[in-house]
Design brief:
The complex is a heterodimer of chains A (260) and B (732).
Chain A lengths: L2 H17 L4 E6 L2 E10 L2 E3 L4 E2 L1 E9 L9 E9 L2 E3 L9 H4 L4 H8 L3 E11 L7 E14 L2 E10 L5 E11 L5 E8 L1 H4 L3 E10 L2 E4 L2 E4 L1 E3 L9 E13 L5 E12 L1
Parallel strand pairs in A: 3-18
Antiparallel strand pairs in A: 1-2, 2-5, 4-16, 5-13, 6-12, 6-17, 7-16, 8-9, 8-13, 9-10, 10-11, 11-12, 14-15, 17-18
Chain B lengths: L16 E6 L7 E6 L21 E6 L7 E2 L1 E6 L3 H4 L9 E7 L5 E2 L12 H5 L16 E8 L7 E7 L20 E9 L4 E11 L6 E5 L9 E6 L7 E2 L5 E11 L14 E2 L2 E5 L19 E6 L10 E6 L7 E7 L5 E2 L9 H9 L2 H6 L8 E9 L6 E10 L7 E11 L2 E14 L6 E4 L9 E2 L2 E2 L2 E8 L5 E2 L7 E9 L11 E9 L12 E7 L9 E7 L8 E7 L4 E3 L10 H5 L13 E8 L7 E8 L7 E7 L4 E11 L2 E6 L9 E6 L7 E3 L11 E6 L4 E4 L4 E2 L2 H14 L1
Parallel strand pairs in B: 33-46
Antiparallel strand pairs in B: 1-2, 3-5, 4-14, 5-13, 6-12, 6-15, 7-14, 8-9, 8-13, 9-10, 10-11, 11-12, 15-16, 15-17, 18-19, 19-29, 20-31, 21-30, 22-23, 22-29, 23-24, 24-25, 25-26, 27-28, 31-32, 33-34, 34-42, 35-41, 35-44, 36-43, 37-38, 37-42, 38-39, 39-40, 40-41, 44-45
The chains are: A mainly beta (260), B mainly beta (732).
Chain lengths: 260, 732
């Protein structure tokens, strides 16, 4: 992560702490607790026209019994219709450029396509083998597979051995309902059968210039009704598919103020 | 005192009296007359046999009061003579049959066999009134003396007890070797040339097949009166008997059938006189304290080692297992050889199972003359000492290499011809499963897969005291190439209190130090070549090939090997398919046969000069106690399996595999091929052709030497070749 990106992430975190606006959504079912937290910056957004934002995301899977939570197999995130992911004119990263690669190599290959960064934690659970913790850097790139846009999550860990993964999130427009964009990924294909992700911390933020225009990958408007100055809304709906369990859905709430 | 006594066999009927007369008038013409009635017309047959008294008493005791010691036997039979000496009295009945059962625990002494001879039927026939000692039964067959007191004579009658020739089952006729066609029989010869008296009797000796208890029967004894019959089995180190193993009171059961019985051949139990006699064993072996009772102690001794302990060199290996008198018998034993001490099986054929079966059916003499197993399969010999006391009887045997047995792919077989002195007890065939620890290479005899040692053969307790094994086939046993102090260990199963029951058997482990020497003289320079074959570009999945070359016998073995792959290689998580669990690995022979196919990531081969064929097998990822699964090369062969277990970790992000324990064995070469492409475990994180990719290799020799280096991993870079070719063409 570059200096600027780190500074931005730090600023977002600091702002969240100061405002105390971080609302965590939690759901618990069948021995699994999912906690998700999202924050946007700035707090005040235009009522109609999406403006550039930074998103701080944190997710935590826990087993209330203290054991290793079940394996996350698939993830689907639906983003509020007032949110806009815009990649027009942004550099594109392709999987072969960052897989396999260390974090530094991935950055050097696709720095222009970077849209976020963070960390991950997880367990590797092999059969008849003691589970061990692993953690590493997480880079998010604007990607493409053929002509379809993707978000590529690049994971690198050096423990217990150098290993990198790329989780491609497919993007799909949703024409009806409160959510306008769907991101989906299948994890085992990328992580193998043994990876048990249980925590991520991520900052998404990318502004860029295209043909003289200042653009942002992440944009949002505040869906406040009528003349209301603020609004509570569902920022996103996440659906988690775990091995051996029914899918769990979680709505991530958010409040925003209207910037007049 | 009456001068005559009547016969006492009422069944025989009127026995005619015969009178021969020779008149002076007709000298030379002898007239004979028989009378079956007396002058009053009464029949001469005897009657009232049931009123004939019969009160024999016996005093029998071993010649020693020590436990489990060579012993003779003093046996005294007394018959009251008052009736005989009283004109109005009834003399005691004569003894028709004597059956003497020695107490359990008094058994035949194997030590007595050495130097013992036998009396053949011809020898026995040659025992005449005036034959000199040894002219009939040889002196070597004499095992005791006899003394008879009879009121009929002033002097005692004396005689000898001889061991009869053992029956040979191959002779079809009855009584060719002895009258009973038995393993053991006795001849008693009592004579007094002065009086013209000779008595020759044959007695049958029957040892119990289970506990060795001895029962001796003399039948159809002559109808002669005696007051005291004394039999003495000689004592000494080669005495015929062994005293019981524990202190206590022991009872000899003697049963006598009188001639006066209504039917002497089929007496009623009331007619049989029982004359028990007891003796005491009061001291332990060598005069020591009595064993405390219960299960005897068991402290076997083991001496084992190679004749020449030069590291990595061939040398005969000898092992000797001993036990003391008074201790539990050997039931079974295992021997675990020191790590690295192994045998060159290459070129040694197995003794076929059919030959082993033939050996079991042979007599010891036949086996000695014509061994059943081929000489080419012989790897050594044995010498087994049996008996008690300071002198034992030693019987030789041979050790052969044999094939699969009781779940083990290899076995050794000891064929001992149980020919001791005059006895031929057949062959003793002991087959022992030979196992090799696939992870350490340690060779051991598995007692669970091995035949037990016989405690008793044909009723004779073996009393094995000294088992010597000489593995002395030239260029067979090879010393470890490690000079670390180690040991040869043996777990010996003692027979407990009752050697005929396995329930109270007791294991004891004994060991003896072993250390090879002169390790520094062994060279150690293994050469490992690494190559990545297949795609060289980033993201490609090359096959990894590792080839190790060594110098076989004469070079120290590898104790530890560590290979760190170049930084370029990552693990391909997507190909990280299946892992074999440890439980799966142990199933079906324990070498990974039951592992899922997806857990196979490569193939390994290794050639050692100790075996004819290379070992080969798959390379698995197997679960482990470490953070990551182990890389396990399951090298399988016809005779042994070897599992090389590599611990996988990383250092500074580089993949590292460490074989912490490598069997100490000479190696010619070994190859480890990991799959590439779609099954490739490795993925290039950089283009391999950009710069040399160096691995780090670290070998520790069994002899303490180390050899570390950083070989370049061989890669076929086509582009470079093209460029070079281009340059070459341009240069031309």
């Amino acid at each position: 992560m570059g200096t600027r990106a780190r500074a931005a992430a730090g600023a977002v975190a600091l702002a969240l702490c100061l405002t105390g606006a971080a609302l965590a959504a939690t759901i618990q079912s069948e021995g699994l607790r999912i906690t998700a937290l999202a924050q946007l910056k700035p707090y005040k957004l235009p009522r109609h026209t999406p403006a550039p934002i930074a998103v701080f995301l944190a997710g935590h899977l826990q087993s209330p019994s203290g054991g290793i939570p079940p394996q996350l197999r698939a993830l689907k995130i639906e983003v509020n219709r007032r949110g806009l992911l815009q990649s027009k004119g942004l550099a594109v990263c392709r999987i072969p450029e960052i897989q396999p690669a260390t974090t530094s190599r991935a950055l050097s290959q696709c720095a222009d396509a970077l849209i976020g960064s963070g960390q991950f934690w997880g367990n590797i659970v092999l059969p008849d083998q003691g589970a061990y913790r692993t953690q590493g850097r997480l880079l998010i790139f604007n990607g493409k597979a053929g002509k379809k846009p993707l978000i590529l999550a690049h994971i690198f860990t050096s423990h217990p051995f150098n290993s990198s993964f790329v989780i491609p999130f497919a993007m799909k427009r949703i024409s009806k309902g409160p959510y306008g964009t769907e991101l989906s990924a299948s994890l085992p294909q990328a992580l193998g059968d043994w990876g048990y992700l249980d925590r991520i911390k991520l900052t998404l933020r990318r502004k860029y210039t295209y043909r003289g225009r200042h653009l942002s990958y992440f944009n949002a408007a505040c869906p406040a009704p009528g003349k209301a100055k603020r609004a509570s809304f569902a920022l996103a709906y996440a659906e988690f598919d775990f091995a051996g369990q029914r899918p769990l859905g979680l709505t991530v709430p958010k409040t925003c103020g209207v910037r007049e | 005192m009456a001068n005559l006594t009547n016969q006492m066999d009422c069944v025989a009927g009127a026995t005619p009296w015969r009178l021969q007369a020779n008149s002076w008038q007709d000298v030379g013409n002898i007239d004979t007359a028989s009378f079956t009635v007396d002058t009053n017309g009464n029949p001469t047959a005897v009657a009232d046999c049931d009123s004939v008294p019969f009160d024999p008493t016996v005093n029998a005791r071993t010649t020693t009061d020590l436990t489990e010691t060579s012993s003779g036997l003093d046996f005294e039979l007394n018959i009251p003579e008052t009736g005989l000496l009283n004109a109005d009295g009834n003399a005691q009945s004569h003894v028709k049959r004597a059956v003497v059962a020695l107490p359990a625990g008094v058994t035949i002494n194997p030590s007595s066999a050495e130097g013992l001879g036998v009396c053949t039927p011809i020898d026995y026939a040659n025992e005449t009134l005036d034959s000199r000692p040894g002219a009939g039964c040889p002196n070597r067959s004499k095992i005791g003396t006899v003394d008879v007191e009879t009121p009929l004579l002033q002097e005692h009658l004396t005689g000898s007890l001889y061991l009869a020739e053992q029956d040979d089952p191959s002779t079809p006729q009855h009584g060719v070797e002895n009258p009973f066609d038995s393993l053991l029989a006795l001849y008693m010869v009592i004579k007094n040339p002065k009086r013209g008296v000779i008595v020759k009797l044959a007695g049958k000796v029957e040892p119990d097949q289970k506990d060795g208890r001895i029962t001796t029967t003399f039948d159809d004894l002559p109808q002669l009166p005696f007051s005291k019959f004394t039999l003495h089995f000689r004592e000494g180190a080669r005495a015929s008997l062994v005293s019981p193993q524990a202190c206590g009171t022991y009872i000899t059961q003697a049963d006598f059938v009188p001639w006066s019985a209504a039917d002497p051949d089929n007496p009623t139990s009331a007619e049989i006189a029982h004359a028990p006699s007891q003796f005491k064993v009061t001291r332990g072996v060598g005069g020591g304290p009595c064993p405390s009772g219960g299960i005897p102690p068991f402290k076997p001794g083991l001496i084992a080692g190679t004749i020449n302990n030069a590291a990595g060199r061939f040398s005969p290996f000898n092992a000797r297992l001993t036990r003391n008198d008074g201790e539990q018998q050997f039931t079974n034993f295992s021997i675990k050889l020191p790590p690295g001490l192994s045998g060159k099986l290459a070129g040694v054929p197995y003794c076929p199972d059919s030959a082993i079966e033939v050996a079991k059916a042979k007599t010891g003499t036949e086996e000695l003359a014509n061994p059943s197993c081929p000489a080419a399969s012989e790897v050594g010999h044995t010498l087994v000492g049996a008996g008690v006391g300071s002198i034992q009887t030693y019987v030789p045997g041979k050790v052969y290499l044999a094939g699969p047995y009781n779940g083990s792919s290899l076995s050794v077989i000891a064929i001992t011809s149980a020919v001791a002195g005059p006895f031929d007890l057949g062959t003793v065939v002991i087959r022992q499963a030979l196992r090799v620890n696939p992870e350490t290479g340690e060779v051991f005899i598995d007692p669970t897969g091995s035949d037990p040692l016989p405690h008793i053969i044909k009723g004779i307790p073996t009393k094995l005291r000294d088992i010597r094994v000489y593995v002395d086939r030239p260029e067979f046993t090879i010393n470890p190439s490690s000079c670390k102090p180690t040991s040869t260990a043996s777990t010996v199963l003692g027979s407990g209190l009752d050697f005929s029951s396995p329930l109270d058997d007791e294991p004891v482990t004994v060991s003896t130090r072993f250390q090879a020497a002169d390790c520094a003289a062994l060279p150690f320079k293994p050469k490992l070549t690494l190559s990545l074959k297949g795609g060289t570009r980033r993201g490609a999945h090359p096959a990894l090939k590792a080839f190790l070359r060594m110098n076989g016998i004469g070079e120290a073995g590898i104790a530890r090997a560590q290979v760190t792959l170049p930084r370029s290689e990552f693990i391909e998580n997507a190909h990280f398919d299946t892992i074999c669990t440890r439980a799966q690995f142990k199933l079906l022979g324990g070498n990974g046969e039951a592992c899922p196919a997806g857990s196979i990531y490569g193939f390994a081969r290794a050639k050692t000069p100790l075996l004819d064929e290379p070992l080969e097998g798959p390379i698995f990822l197997r679960s482990s106690e470490h953070e990551l699964p182990d890389v396990v090369a399951s090298l399988r062969g016809q005779q042994i399996d070897v599992h090389l277990i590599g611990r996988v970790d990383s250092v500074k992000g580089q993949l590292r595999n460490t074989f912490e324990t490598v069997p100490d064995a000479p190696v010619d070469w070994a190859s480890f091929n990991f799959k590439g492409a779609k099954k490739g475990l490795f993925v290039n994180s950089t283009n391999l052709c950009r710069k040399p990719n160096r691995a780090e290799v670290s070998f520790d020799g069994q002899n303490g030497k180390a050899y570390d280096y950083r070989p370049a991993v061989k890669v076929k870079c086509k582009a470079k070749h093209k460029k070079q070719a281009k340059h070459k063409r341009a240069a031309r």
